[in-house]
Amino acid sequence: MITFPVLLLEIAATAVLLTAWLSLVHRRLDALVHIYSFQSLATAAVAFLVAYQYDAPLLALTGLLVLALNVVAIPWVLLRIRRELSIPPETNLFVSVRSSALAGLGCLLLSVAMVGPLTSVAEIPEAGLLPISVTVVLIGLFTTVARRKAFSQILGILVMENGVFLAGIALTYGLGLLLELGIAANLFILAVVSRLFLHRMKGSLDTVDADALRSLEG
Amino acid sequence: MTFFDVFSSLLLLLAEFAFVLGISPLLVGILRKVRARSQRREGATVWQPYRDLRKLFSKGTVYAESSSAVTPYAPWISLAALLGAVPFIPWFFLPGPLGFAGDLIVVVGLLALSRFMTALAALDAGSTFGGMGSSRDMWIGALAEPTFLLVIFAWGAPAGSTQASTIALYGLTLGVYQLSPATILATVAFVLLLLTETGRLPVDNPATHLELTMIHEAMVLEYGGRDLALVELGKGVRFVLLTGLLLAVALPWGMALELSVLALLVGIALLLAKLLAATWAVGQLETRVAKWRLFRLTDLATLAVTLAFGSLALTYLVGVGS
Amino acid sequence: MDLGTLGTPLLAAALLSFLTGSLLGFSGPAASRRLARASLLLDLLGCAFLVPFALGVLLGGSGVTFPVSLPGFSTISPSLSLGLGVDSLSALFVFLLGFVGFAITLASLGYVPEYVHERPATLAGFYGLFLLSMLLVLLAETTFLFLVGWEAMTLVSYFLVVHEHGSWEVRKAGLSYLVMSHAAAASLLAGLILLTVDTGQFSFVPMSHAAALVPPVWQDVIFVALLIGFGTKAGLVPLHTWLPEAHPSAPSNVSALMSGVMIKIGIYGILRFVFLVLGGGQLWWGFTLITLGAVSALVGILNAIAQHDLKRLLAFSSVENIGIIFMALGASLVFQALGSPVLAALALLAGLFHTFNHALFKGLLFLGAGAVVGAVGTRNMEKMGGLARSMPGTAGTFLVGAMAISALPPFNGFVSEWLLFQAFFGSFATGSLATEMTFTATAAVLALASGLAAYCFVKAFGMTFLARPRSPEARGVVRDAPLAQRVGMGLMAGTCLTLGIIPVLAFPLFGGTLTELVHSGLPSYSALSWLGTLPRPSPSASGAGGTVALGVVALVLAAGILVAWALRRLGAPRPDPREAMWDCGMESPTPRMEYTASGYAQPILRIFSAYYGPREHAETTIRGGSRPGILATTGHFETEVSYPLVEQIYSPLTRSIVGFSRRFSRLQSGGIHAYLGYMILTLVVLLIAVRVAGGIFP
């Protein structure tokens, strides 16, 4: 039987999934950053709920970390990058919006088919959490492949990170503090490094189009 | 079945029809008001649509010389098809007097019938705008149809029925626990569908008369007087139907389960409150999005249908009827 | 009704009527309208005999095969019995042939004398033979007779297709039909020979008993061969290419019969051999049928939308509907293989009912199109328009057909699609993710196809009957279709409506077939059948399924119309004044400003451009005048839609076959001696072959 906290947890996880899906069909970069920020908020909510449910205060700490970094800091840095480098407000697509939405569905079907059977073995009440997190990882991965601008590729990686974090919670129930600390720190470094990278790229190639990197080929 | 049962069922049925017909202009008025306010305008009062209808009903009709018998019949049949769907959606009483007689697939069929008649009538006079609106409305409708069906499946799968009353009753037994990843996804898909089916932004701008963007308005340009009143009424009823359906399935709480005056009054009051809140929300949503380019609507349709499909995949995960 | 006493005479009378009818058609001058009428009257009589015959078997019989003894059809040899037989399945299709054939023949009585200008009597003669050959296929009880009937049906329908053989297009369509049909017949022959050899039986009943012993691999081979054979006749994608060529070329009453009944005989073949003889087979058979059906539905309707030839549009829509029927058959096979006979019966019921419904409304639509094409003199919708005022009877019945085929309540098309949706919904109780997701995708395709069908038929009806005439020919139409044709179409339209409101009227017809094919009777439905209640499938233990009382829906609809009418009418002046069209104040709009069929379809062409690959050419000439460089003087825009299947598969195939054949054309020297030589050579080779084979298999 599902308890009320588990219900809230499922709702929060669904919010993470929906925002990932939305990031597939949205084209405006600022909106994508806001979507990511909201997604991180939902991820943090999952962390808090699991912490409450399984009495794991360390996980709550991780949630605070997510709140600080993923919800506030990283989006703030990203928005600044976009403004400073005057990156055009709309992303270019390798793959059309229609195909992207279908790919999102493909990710979901794949993870339900592959990971779904595991949940019955694990005997956890929130059956949807693991497939949902795997879907989010896959969607993030797809975004990095299917978008042309380095900026939106970074966003894809960030979405993926949220998925990994969710999967970590689903599998370990709060034991992943160190893991998450590591990931979060890495990501923050990634964001800073990518900022430098984009600066350099803009400076030397006069664009942030990842396609332009091909011109560097000997 | 006693005489009293038949009598009360009939009364309830009439009440449902009266409720839907009566409230639809109010909701249209509220939608306009919300939009006006968010654009820092005063806007007309929420009762304005009633006045418009009264004005239109007191006028005669003029038909184009080139039109056939389709033009005068289409508005009635179109409205009748929408009204025909009323008994199959639970409003304030479960399972509803005629709830057994139709499921949500019938509702889809009746909505399609209404759309079909309007689209035919738009072609009847032979005006350029009519053809344009008719073509647009029909393809948008065609692309919305798979979403509608899959959402019905996703809502219905846990209850094992495609009938709105059964789904709502099942939802009531679960209480708040009817919310699950699957139903949330399906409901989001349905909200996208609702915007499409009722011609709200970002799909269609109900306030426009610019030929490049018109969809529904372009179809009814040749109508006037009483016929136009029926068309306008139908537009409102369509909105009430779909919003009511969403509320009945997603938030069935508070519906009367027994035939007592108190339960019915509570049911009606709650339904009214829910409808007003939903209308306000749609109005808010409308002011926050710009009208999409016509052919980007296929993106919206794809998003909706993939969400609905995904929701069915998640349904499998949770297990049907467990 | 006891069939033993009444059935045989009824059948004999029907056969005799068709035979004398067709002989009568050939007996006199080909141009005689009276002869044509007399011949068609006899066909009408024959169809009228078939209906009670089939009803007798369906309602009175227990679904067992029994031979019909007719004088002249006695056994030739024990191993090759030339037997006719009838069971629930064949009786169902005989009923279809009789009932729909009756309505179409009735309409032909008006259509042929009015609109067929070339050799009406010959047409009537072949028409009778066509009915006869279809009856023969349905009654055949042995593979041999089945194949004879099948070939006869193909040949006779070929002659009907090329009836107006003066035009090159018609001859080309006929050739394509003949070639496709014979390629399919070869596959069919191979399948049936394998089946006969593997089971050692010619007759269907012992064959089905022995079929279980056929090794699964051979069963699969036979299934594929039969699917190619029957799928081609039914018009299943990718074997459908003959259909949109042949159906429009034939005279419209023949198109109606072909689309309404003949392609359904392909369905009959699948039911007879895959369901009954082979017993349903493996899971992948069902999934194959579902996939092909879904593809057919989409390809059919997308192509239908792109047409501006009215009859071609209808032909492509037949492909769509065949797709829907195949989805149902496939779903039934899947459910059978998964061990849920109730759902299998529900899906099959949907398929059978849709077969029946499609025969009704497509026959009706083709007849309506025939009247329109006959009156305007072209099949091009861009040259029609405004016919609702000059041909109100045709327009009214055509509208009913259009609404029924768009699956709108309260018409029969909605009912069969409802049943199919319920069957798909039932899959959520099977517990297999692959099955559930397949059915979900199929349901989405079905919903999309029916939405697009509505789009397609708003276009078809609107462009043909509404607005102002787009050409002088359309303006010149003054007369509605002949009375007999309107009555025939009215009969079908009435049946569409009746079965849409009280579908259970037709269900007893299907009961025996369901029991025979999937060993589960009609799904239980409420006793309130007069309300039009449909079966209540119960997909999961917890659920109550969905119910529908279409009678109530229709009543509510009628009440709604009444209320709306009252709102509209009370105190309004009558009649309503008529004025020039407003059109946003456009001054004297002309028919050239109306939306065209191509314009109407353009958005779908753009949305599904990945499928159509439309190529657009636009040309505008801008010349001087009072304001140089601003006003366009001439404009030209055309869209060309590619037909991927034909361009990418069939054309290369045809080219390679032609190239291959050319190499052998040297054999055709034309001299009689060469041919005699070939005969001797063949004889010698055969003799040696027999000897050698005899040595290997003594």
In percent, how much strand structure appears in the residues of chain B? Answer: under 5%
Number of strands of chain A: 0
- What are the low-pLDDT stretches of chain A, counting only 5+ consecutive residues below 50? none
The proportion of residues forming helix of chain A, as a percent range, comes to over 70%
Radius of gyration of chain A: 18 Å
What's the end-to-end separation of chain A, in Å?
A: 62 Å
Name the beta content range of chain A: under 5%
Class by SSE composition of chain B: mainly alpha
* End-to-end C-alpha gap of chain B: 34 Å
Task: Tell me the number of helical segments of chain A per DSSP (H or I, 4 or more residues long).
Answer: 7
Low-confidence stretches of chain B: none
Which overall shape of chain B is indicated by the principal axes computed on the Cα atoms? globular
Element string of chain A (H = helix, E = strand):
HHHHHHH
How would you describe this structure in keywords?
heterotrimer, A: 218 residues, mainly alpha, 7 helices, 78% helix, 0% strand, globular, C: 698 residues, two-stranded antiparallel sheet, 25 helices, 5 strands, 3% strand
What does this structure look like?
The complex is a heterotrimer of chains A (about 220), B (about 325) and C (about 700). Chain A has helices spanning about 5-25, 30-55, 55-85, 95-120, 130-145, 150-170, 175-205. Chain A has about 220 residues and is mainly α. Chain A has one domain (about 5-215). The model of chain A has no long low-confidence stretch (mean pLDDT about 80). Chain B has about 325 residues and is mostly helical. Chain B has one domain (about 5-320). Chain B contains 11 helices and 1 strand. Chain B is globular and about 55 Å long. Chain C is mainly alpha-helical. Chain C has helices at about 5-25, 35-60, 90-115, 120-140, 145-160, 170-200, 205-210, 215-235, 245-250, 250-275, 285-305, 310-335, 340-375, 385-390, 390-405, 410-425, 435-465, 470-475, 485-500, 505-520, 550-570, 595-605, 610, 645-665, 670-695, and strands at about 65, 85, 580, 615-620, 630-640. Chain C has a two-stranded antiparallel sheet with strand order 1-2. Chain C has a two-stranded antiparallel ribbon with strand order 4-5. Chain C is globular, with a radius of gyration of 27 Å. In chain C, about 55% of the residues are buried. The model of chain C is unreliable at about 60-65, about 70-80, about 525-530 and about 540-545 (pLDDT under 50). Chains B and C meet through strand 1, helix 3, helix 4, helix 5 and helix 9 of B and helix 15, helix 16, helix 17, helix 21 and strand 3 of C.
